[in-house]
Specification:
About 15% of the residues lie in helices and about 35% in strands. The N terminus is likely disordered.
């Protein structure tokens, strides 16, 4: 597996440490989606995960969190609203994964693409909260978030040798009472794109369904 560079350009991670880093990042993402870490804590630990260079440093990042719950696979059947989890993680590792069609969007959603692509198409989805928080992370990959015109969109992201773009080409029909979708995260040698599109306005990248 290829080595991913640190955002701060520190020395290369030993190859034997790469699987451990990926496991720790996956654990942090699951804990964030389950509301056991807030946004600031999650992003601070994630940055430390890219700076860590020893097994002790990696284990310290998750030692106080306990076991994480397995991420729900993309394309799985949606749960009834009353049973919908507060958070969900959609992972793509050397793959293309998409959520689209009719599906329930939890209050907190994480999309992570490592040398792959994730598409979160919410045009036919049901938002289960007035405020939906999406964290998108693209490492040598891409995350595409497609939203309907009736939501208010807020974006706040960082790109290092990549792009974090808000491409709301379709005029929004949202007002002060409309649901809010907040998209944040970062792209490292990758791309995060946020788009507003009418339902049925054309294809988006990715395969799979909701």
């Amino acid at each position: 597996m290829s080595e991913l560079p640190s955002p701060r350009g520190s020395r290369a991670l030993p190859p034997e440490m790469i699987p451990l880093r990926e496991r720790v990042i996956a654990q942090l993402t699951d804990h964030f989606a389950a509301d056991r870490l807030n946004t600031g804590e999650f992003e601070a630990r994630l940055e430390l995960a890219f700076q860590a260079r020893s097994a002790i440093e990696f284990e310290e990042l998750v030692a106080d969190l306990g076991p994480s719950s397995p991420s729900a696979p993309a394309g799985s059947a949606a749960l009834p609203t009353g049973q919908q989890p507060r958070g969900q993680v959609v992972w793509a590792l050397f793959a293309a994964v998409a959520r689209k069609g009719a599906w329930l969007v939890p209050r907190r959603l994480v999309g992570s693409a490592v040398m792959g692509s994730v598409v979160l198409d919410m045009r036919d989805a049901v938002l289960t909260s007035q405020v939906t928080e999406i964290r998108a992370f693209a490492l040598f990959g891409s995350v595409e978030v497609v939203l309907p015109p009736y939501v208010r969109v807020e974006t706040d992201g960082l790109a290092v040798f990549g792009g974090f773009e808000d491409r709301a080409r379709t005029p929004t029909t949202a007002d002060s009472t409309s649901p809010i979708v907040r998209v944040g995260g970062f792209a490292l040698f990758g791309a995060v794109e946020v788009k507003v599109r009418e339902v049925g306005s054309g294809k988006v990248r990715g395969k799979g369904g909701g």
